[in-house]
Amino acid sequence: MKVSEKPWFVYLVRAANGSLYCGISDDPVRRFAKHQTGRGARFFASSPAVALVYVESWPDKGEALRQERLIKKLRKSAKECLVQSQAGDFFPSPQPSPAGRGS
Questions:
Q1: Which of 31-35, 41-45, 57-61, 91-95 has the lowest mean pLDDT?
Q2: What is the CATH number of the domain that holds 81?
Q3: pLDDT 10s digits, 71-84
Q4: What positions does the domain GIY-YIG occupy (predicted)?
Q5: 25 DSSP 8-state letter
Q6: Does 99 map to a domain?
């Protein structure tokens, strides 16, 4: 029996043009940072990555790959439903700093 593996994640990233990119990673935050710098996926060559909008956890890479394939087959409207189902849960929007702080 295998020792518990590190979980893998399926994630959606919104590009500047509104399209959604689906991928997998064992560290979606680090992977998103790579996408933002233009490394990691040719998908973002024409429209930069602007937000990590959806993340789900799977127990291993194989299951994450299966889920990624299923999500990639969905219509954009269904992917948007996934995004809305998690809106604000994973990465809350940054809050504006109170007036006078940091000035």
A1: 91-95
A2: 3.40.1440.10
A3: 999 999 999 999 99
A4: 6-81
A5: E
A6: no
Task: Specify the amino acid at residue 26.
Answer: D
- Map tokens 């998908």 to a residue: 43
3-state secondary structure 49-67: EEEEEEEEEECCHHHHHHH
**Total tally of structural domains belonging to the chain:** 1
**Quick one: pLDDT at residue 86?**
87
Instruction: Return d(Cα 28, Cα 90) in angstroms, integer.
Output: 11
Q: Is residue 56 part of a domain?
A: yes
Sheet holding 49-58, edge to edge: 20-25, 8-15, 49-58
Which residue's entry shows tokens 């889920």?
A: 67
Please check whether residue 101 lies inside any domain of the structure: no
